[in-house]
Amino acid sequence: MSGTSADGVDAALAEIKNGKFTLIKHHFRPYTDEIRKMILDAMDNETSSVSLICQLNFILGEEFAQAAREISEFTRIKPDLVASHGQTIYHIPRPDPKRGWHTRSTLQIGEAAVIAEKIGAPVISDFRVRDVAAGGEGAPLVPFADFILFKHPEKSRSIHNIGGISNLTYIPQNAKKEEVIAFDTGPGNALIDLVVQEYFNMPYDRNGEIAASGEVHHDVVEKLLRHPYFEMPPPKSTGREVFNRDFISWIKLPLRDLVATLTYFTAKSIALSYEEFILPHGLDEILVAGGGAYNKTLIKWLKELLKGVKVLTFEEAGLNSKAREAMAFAVLGYFAFKKIPNNLPQVTGAAHPVIMGKLTLP
Fold first, then answer.
1. Does domain 8-134+333-338+351-360 have CATH number 3.30.420.40?
2. Spatial separation of the C-alpha atoms in residues 13 and 323, rounded to whole Å
3. pLDDT of residue 321
4. What is the 3-state secondary structure (H, E, C) of 286-314?
């Protein structure tokens, strides 16, 4: 798995026995600065090119294959099956002619044939496009796996991921899969990282220390929250195509205040999503995963904004947040290999259940 933060490849080795999925090991392979720049350039209409995407497709295939090879070497276990989400380069969840988006579409790269060649195992890849073909947004996909892994007989819980983009999976107590609610709440770390990388020469705001040292400008937060995405009901998904440099280019604040304001805005947008779409159904706890789970200031503000709901990071709950999304694609890949539908139409907007993922044989 490589997400919207584009910082590297998360690999999870999972054992699947009697329908139960067990994490054996998680491994993170960071991208070099050069590869990360190539990915971010490929995502940007101003810097992308056909040549760049063509080359990057194979470069990332090598990166994913190496991540799979390394986790195999660490554990001395050869995988029977590899599931690769790939790297999202562009995502158009719904047409928007004003932006030149005339059809819904999505593009993930990281050539599966390279992985199959290097690992010698079948590869399931390119999950999102089958859902889009069935009229869905191709996102979010992880909620299917969240349902398999985290359904609880007595608790209504939300599994919340704060990566580049923030998304939630709400699983009611003893739920049926048709009862799951999931959607992208908006930006996660994307805007914070963008400012911290450009002005502080740091990859991210470690522990939320910069945000903690600044002042939140609530008038700016309110203006940012007026974006129409936040008023849209689920199903919905979004990405860097919407929440990017242009989205915040008008803000004129001292840099530490800017980081604090964007961090609070992120927490507020998440909290408002819960208040409007989830809390009316009843909620016992939120389990937070992803890089944002390590931003202490972001989590502190989120807990303050959602008083009355138990908010725990994965680690506080005894889970591994870094492995969560890679583990999810192990689940999705397994179901695809077994020819069992693995999307949630009420989440993605697809017309019907489909089997997501393309098979590449070794």
1. yes
2. 9
3. 87
4. EEEECHHHHCHHHHHHHHHHCCCCEEEEC
What sections of the chain are H helices per DSSP? Answer: 33-43, 50-75, 112-119, 128-133, 142-150, 190-199, 209-213, 218-224, 245-248, 255-273, 296-305, 324-337, 345-348
Cα 215 to chain centroid, rounded: 28
Looking at the domain 142-322, which fold is it? Nucleotidyltransferase; domain 5 (3.30.420)
Sequence ranges of the domains in the chain: 8-134+333-338+351-360, 142-322
CB atoms under 10 Å from CB of 73, counted, come to 11
Q: Is 5's pLDDT higher than 90?
A: no
Question: Residue 195 corresponds to which amino acid?
Answer: V
Fold agreement between 8-134+333-338+351-360 and 142-322 = yes
Could you read off the pLDDT of 340-354 as tens digits, one per residue?
999 999 999 999 999
Judge whether 78 and 72 are in contact, CB under 8 Å.
yes
Cα separations (Å) of 32 from 38, 114, 249?
Answer: 10, 19, 28
Three-class DSSP labels, 5-36 = CCCEEEEEEEEEECCEEEEEEEEEEECCHHHH
pLDDT of residue 157: 98
